[in-house]
């Protein structure tokens, strides 16, 4: 409960800060008052200095490194290096994809995949006079087994022949078939293999008729948590496909979060290949995400793993007693892209400064070295911020 109250307080600050700034700006010519609301206070921390010095001593070019650490309310900057330059975020991109999906469907959304009979069924001749409609909503976890089970349900309903066409509505992917076009071709073959004949190739169309087979996914919040904890590229790619592809996620960041077009460029919803976002853009995304989650009675640890606690890419990181459970984040790793990319972005719970947002983007170097340096920076920063304020990870899953 204390954690939710903390986030509620921070959320109120985030929501009303622009209004306060506007009121001060129109109440007089007190420049110092305006500055108080507009310009965040810049602290030079020992952690930041040591981190930047180590980068230089190891021979890394500082222009290939990005860093920004801010308080949740945005009033304090604790570290800043090239925060307005675009870097490859790797799988940190999955946070953007997750946020866009939550914004579009809501955390308790369940993807449904179903078959409909658009016409009468003669069970004696096992004939559907009309179209067989496959209605998909973009389930990113749909498997070949799930699809086969659906088709067998259609057969069990008394259909082995269709006089019309196979009609596909909505985004449809399954297994490794990550686009609707490829998945549709594959399912046509599977339908025929399992004993249903129809005329002509599959077509796009509208939903109609009576439901005869259905499959529901787990909740979106659960899908996203597993995706982010284990950094599952296939899930993120298919989730992005369901929303219209990586450019739909990019548009979300620009239109809904307010990032400038120059701050972000996405080619893959999973973070594979070459994507770009500035550390400042990543922090803005995280700040809006925290506020959105709070409004929906959720916390960052509902959709992102806790370092040193949750299974996945952060399980073996920040495991010491003085840091375990204090960081909730998303990792990013691309050893063969941009000379070697390692990224880490999320939120850190500190005793003296409350929740702190961070985005660390490293490129042109060995990812294992970068990971150790990232962890070292966060550990040192925790000490400077009075130590940890650990979260109760078990409380998160009990809400699902």
Q: Give the helix proportion (percent range).
A: 40-55%
The CATH topology of the largest domain is given as Beta-lactamase
General form: elongated
* Main sheet specs: 6 strands, mixed
Give the low-confidence spans: 1-9, 15-37, 393-400
The CATH level-2 architecture of the largest domain is identified as 3-Layer(aba) Sandwich
Beta fraction? 15-25%
Number of helices: 12
Q: What is the first-to-last residue Cα distance?
A: 17 Å
Q: Name the structural class.
A: alpha/beta
Number of strands: 16
Strand/helix succession: HHEHEEHEEEEHEEHEEHHHEEHEEEHH
Write a concise synopsis of the structure shown.
The chain has helices at residues 2-27, 31-38, 46-57, 93-105, 144-156, 180-193, 220-230, 233-243, 246-257, 279-295, 367-384, 393-398, and strands spanning 41-42, 65-71, 76-81, 110-118, 121-122, 127-128, 131-135, 161-162, 166-169, 203-204, 210-219, 264-265, 276-277, 327-334, 341-350, 354-362. With 400 residues, the protein is α/β, with parallel strands linked by helices.
What labels describe this entry?
400 residues, alpha/beta, Beta-lactamase, D-tyrosyl-trna(Tyr) Deacylase, Chain: A, 5-stranded mixed beta sheet, 20% strand
Describe the structure.
This protein is an alpha/beta fold and 400 residues long. The chain has three domains: 1-36; 40-106 and 221-398, DD-peptidase/beta-lactamase superfamily (Beta-lactamase), CATH 3.40.710; 120-208, D-Ala-D-Ala carboxypeptidase C, peptidase S13 (D-tyrosyl-trna(Tyr) Deacylase, Chain: A, 3-Layer(bba) Sandwich), CATH 3.50.80. It contains twelve helices and 16 strands. The protein has helices at 2-27, 31-38, 46-57, 93-105, 144-156, 180-193, 220-230, 233-243, 246-257, 279-295, 367-384, 393-398, and strands spanning 41-42, 65-71, 76-81, 110-118, 121-122, 127-128, 131-135, 161-162, 166-169, 203-204, 210-219, 264-265, 276-277, 327-334, 341-350, 354-362. The chain has a six-stranded mixed beta sheet with strand order 1-3-2-16-15-14, sandwiched between helices. A five-stranded mixed beta sheet has the order 10-9-7-4-11. The longest helix has 26 residues, at 2-27.
């Amino acid at each position: 409960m204390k954690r939710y109250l903390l986030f509620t307080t921070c959320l109120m600050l985030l929501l009303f800060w622009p209004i306060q700034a506007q009121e001060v700006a129109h109440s007089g010519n007190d420049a110092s008052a305006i500055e108080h609301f507009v310009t965040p206070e810049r602290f030079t921390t020992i952690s930041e200095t040591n981190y930047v010095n180590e980068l230089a001593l190891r021979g890394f070019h500082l222009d290939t490194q990005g860093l920004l650490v801010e308080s949740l309310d945005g009033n304090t900057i604790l570290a800043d290096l090239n925060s307005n330059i675009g870097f490859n975020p790797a799988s940190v991109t999955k946070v953007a994809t997750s946020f866009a999906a939550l914004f579009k469907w809501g955390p308790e959304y369940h993807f449904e995949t179903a078959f409909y009979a658009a016409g009468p069924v003669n069970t004696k001749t096992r004939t559907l006079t009309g179209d067989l409609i496959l209605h998909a909503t973009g389930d990113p976890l749909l498997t070949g087994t799930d699809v086969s089970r659906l088709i067998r349900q259609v057969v069990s309903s008394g259909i082995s022949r269709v006089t019309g066409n196979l009609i596909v509505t909505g985004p449809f992917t399954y297994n490794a078939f990550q686009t609707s076009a490829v998945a549709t071709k594959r399912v046509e073959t599977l339908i025929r293999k399992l004993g249903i004949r129809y005329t002509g190739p599959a077509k796009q169309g509208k939903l109609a008729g009576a439901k005869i087979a259905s499959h529901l996914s787990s909740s979106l919040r659960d899908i996203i948590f597993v995706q982010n904890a284990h950094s599952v590229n296939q899930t993120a790619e298919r989730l992005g496909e369901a929303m219209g592809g990586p450019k739909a996620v990019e548009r979300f960041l620009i239109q809904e979060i307010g990032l400038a077009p120059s701050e972000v460029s996405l080619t893959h919803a999973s973070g594979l290949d070459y994507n770009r976002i500035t550390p400042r853009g990543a922090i803005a995304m995280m700040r809006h995400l925290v506020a959105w989650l709070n409004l929906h009675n959720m916390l960052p640890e509902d959709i992102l793993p806790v370092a040193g606690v949750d299974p996945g890419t952060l399980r073996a990181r920040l495991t010491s007693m003085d840091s375990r459970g204090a960081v909730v984040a998303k990792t990013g790793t691309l050893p063969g892209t941009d000379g070697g990319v390692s990224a880490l972005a999320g939120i850190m719970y500190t005793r003296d400064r409350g929740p702190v947002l961070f985005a660390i983007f490293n490129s042109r170097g060995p990812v294992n070295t970068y990971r150790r340096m990232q962890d070292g920076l966060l550990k040192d920063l925790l000490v400077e911020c009075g130590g940890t304020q650990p979260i109760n990870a078990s409380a998160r899953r009990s809400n699902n």
